[in-house]
Specification:
Pfam families: GGDEF
Shape: globular
Strand content: 5-15%
Structural class: alpha+beta
Protein name: Diguanylate cyclase
InterPro entries: Diguanylate_Cyclase, GGDEF_dom, Nucleotide_cyclase, Rev_trsase/Diguanyl_cyclase, TPR-like_helical_dom_sf
GO molecular function: diguanylate cyclase activity
Distance between the termini: 58 Å
Organism: Actinoplanes friuliensis DSM 7358
Number of helices: 24
Amino acid sequence: MTWLDQLPDSVDELRDAGNFQQVGRSAEALAILDKVLATTADPLTRAYALVQRFGALINLGRAAEFATAMTLASNAVRETSDPYLRGQMHAFAALGAHLQSALDRGVTHLVQASRALAAVPDGDSETAWGWHDLAMAYSYLGFHGHALTAIEQARQVGAAAGMASEVFAAPGIRLRNAVSLDHQGDTDGCLRVLRDIDAELTRYVASGADVRLRPSSRPVYGYALARRAALGESTEADVAGLLTGGGDSVRSRDLRHLGTVCLDIAADRPADALRRLDAVPVSPEILGPAEPARLRSICYASAGNHEAAHTADRHAFRLAAQRIDRLRDGYLDGVAARLDAQETQRDVGRYGDETLTDPLTGLPNRRQLERYVAAMLARGERAAIGVCDLIGFTAVNARHGRHCGDLVLQRIAGVLNRVMRRGDFVARFAGDEFVVVLPGAGPTQAAEVSRRISAAAAGENWQVLVPGTPIGLAAGWSEVGTNGRSLSAALAAAASNRTPA
């Protein structure tokens, strides 16, 4: 019995859609899933269909539909609390974030997917595919070691469900590792991995196991062998025949094109290879943005134009290094978020009561703000008070979905926490509105804190988190406790004079 067998209806249709997905016919799978969603009212069936629909859109590269599809899938999965569905949804979301160049969001989904799939009590074929998709997401985002661990987990869960190990061959993981090594200057290491891929395919063909390979794996093997040939090592396999498979995915299309470029290089036709590179752009997410530049360098070297080859190689290296820089930035953001969380946990007096805390950001909520200010006024103290609103938040929810909106709110909460002085108070007041309280401060100190808030918000890489949607802050300031001014009066005065921070 598989996970699908527990559903009350549409089991055969959903199984057919899954089979189409596995053989690279995502458009046909999408049509079936849409029919199921139009007829079923069962929450679990709808959640599964919405998750798989999200995956089909990713395979087809229909990025404009990602945000809406993910929001629908996420909301449906949240209602079921099923760990497999949650893991599968986050694995797809990580792939979607990668295709949208949102690395930090992708990493968040990777962690959530891994935790959810590890919580599945009894693995079956569906869970095995969930681990497979997580491995793919790890690989695309550049975490090759984690990808190998996840694909091994897929093999183990699949073997327990009676699935052949060749189904989870996943040559794309090692291919991306190989080209990554080459982009960083380790061509010998790249060739070692490509030889291993060639040897694996040879074993499968000799034993007849190649018939069990997924169709989408064939152009990956083809590109690996074509890339090896472009680096000067021939192969006996039918590379051109392998490149023709793969179905309707964006990945297969780009691998076919770049594989033909590699075959032109291997056949000593560098001019033809350069024309192909110039004629058809490829997605930078399939093998990394550096791969076309690296192939261009090999073309020039083959033609004897070593100065142009060096220039193209340096460009490829710069493109590869940008990913490393983004990973470092994400690491710093992660450390900052962890420190913010530790600070929140230590300061029990400000954040200890869960009924007084906003669950999304971990900040005090409106009720705790009111208590804090009431106690301060009872002591006869005064404070500067600021009201901060997000600029562009409505567009974030409309274009990217509520999940991205939540990430933006969490990021802003972290920004505010980091720039406050020791003893200052930050609360999420309502929606995208935050309130900061600076005890004992006047206009001069408030202006300095406002400047720090503005600089910190402007320094965030919003383009990576919510591409094409600028984010800003509008802040207004007032005083509470001065001339008997109450919290409500101070908030109204601050809100009335908000300006872009």
